[in-house]
Design brief:
Structural class: alpha+beta
Oligomer: single chain
Largest sheet: 7 strands, antiparallel
Order of helices and strands: HEEHHHHHEEEEEEEEEEEEEHEEE
Bound molecules: zinc ion
Number of strands: 18
Number of helices: 7
Length: 346
């Protein structure tokens, strides 16, 4: 009799487990369906939420950089995409041990395709995270004072973080988690960017190299600059720039800018249909990062903007020093920078 009840219970448990499994699988299917919309025959990602925290980003970055001197090279985007797939995109579940385990497997020579086999969302996260972080790490050259003559600058080749903090070196700023908080000027909407509170006139530098795509007045952003990465996937939006002299004199539409180059100055313009109005209470830089998988997404009802809080923290590892030109009163970078993607524009 006891055995019979246990068997019956077992049968019920198996049925329940199967139903749960079926639901999870179905949910996964639906998830994959919602992120890969088909529009005019083109398949592209429609939705990305990025919430990898500083700790995970920093550790993965260090594994990547350190491994470049070793036989097996690690890719921080692979590591982070694997973890995102494991956590369903929610890094609140992040444990360092999980990262260590995937790194161990990679170092043993297993490749990420093998390790992530069976994870239905891995390829989605790999594509999404590659779009976000694709231009962040690699080889670059930067000027340094020559060891023979301190007054001479020479280029040094390096591997590592090749994107910069949007606020120039030595200039103070404050920031906090403000992505998605509500804004009411014009119409009620979520805050789709990151605010860096800094004094008016603080030099703003380009985070990543790219081409100036948009320049001028916008009633929300005030004086703003839009710069597109060379792979076209990232659109950086810098807003509320200084009244009267918002931009560096060299900035023009279609100009190619190098990561770390001064592009403008912090201000508090915006919230007015009238140009050059200082209607923002506290001077700050609003920076936004939009992902574009298909050109139809550039301006649409479902634009993909990324939370930049943790990324801004990572960017503090790389600050661009600037110097003031007494004649023009303009600020310029101290040390030049070069990366391969700039070669077509030299
Ligand atoms: Zn803002």
């Amino acid at each position: 009799m006891i055995i019979k009840i246990t068997k019956a219970k077992m049968a019920i448990a198996i049925v329940v487990a199967l139903v749960v499994l079926f639901c999870v699988a179905d949910k996964n299917q639906n998830f994959v369906k919602t992120i890969n919309h088909v529009q005019e025959g083109r398949k592209f990602i429609k939705y990305v939420e990025f919430n990898a925290n500083y700790d995970a980003l920093e550790k993965a970055l260090n594994f990547d950089i350190k491994s470049q001197k070793e036989e097996i090279k690690l890719n921080w985007i692979d590591i982070l995409s694997y973890l995102a797939a494991k956590y369903g995109g929610n890094f609140n579940n992040y444990k360092y041990k999980d990262m260590e385990n995937v790194v161990k497997a990679l170092k043993k020579g297993e490749n990420i395709q093998e390790i992530s086999k069976g994870m239905k969302t891995f390829s989605y996260y790999k594509e999404a995270y590659s779009a976000i972080l694709g231009g962040f790490v690699g080889k670059y050259k930067v000027e340094v004072p020559s060891s023979e003559d301190k007054n001479k600058l020479v280029f040094e080749e390096r591997y590592g973080l090749k994107v910069f903090s949007p606020i120039a070196k030595t200039y103070p700023f404050q920031h906090y988690k403000d992505f998605g908080s509500s804004r009411s000027y014009g119409y009620s909407r979520p805050h789709l960017g990151h605010d860096l509170m800094a004094a008016t006139g603080t030099p703003v530098v380009a985070v990543e190299s790219g081409k100036v795509e948009c320049l001028g007045w916008n009633q929300y952003g005030g004086w703003r600059i839009g710069i597109r990465s060379f792979d076209k996937k990232r659109y950086y939006y810098y807003a509320h720039l200084r009244k009267n002299r918002p931009y560096h004199a060299q900035i023009k539409i279609d100009k190619v800018v190098r990561a770390g180059e001064v592009i403008g100055y912090v201000g508090r313009t915006g919230y007015s249909q009238k140009e050059n109005a200082n209607n923002i209470e506290t001077s700050h830089l609003h920076i936004g990062l939009q992902l574009i998988f298909d050109e139809s997404q550039k301006e649409c009802d479902n634009e993909i903007w990324i939370n930049l809080y943790a990324i801004t923290q990572i960017l503090q590892k790389n600050k661009s020093g600037v110097k003031r030109n007494g004649e023009t009163k303009e600020y310029d970078r101290q040390y030049d920078f070069w990366e391969k993607s700039l070669q077509d524009f030299d």
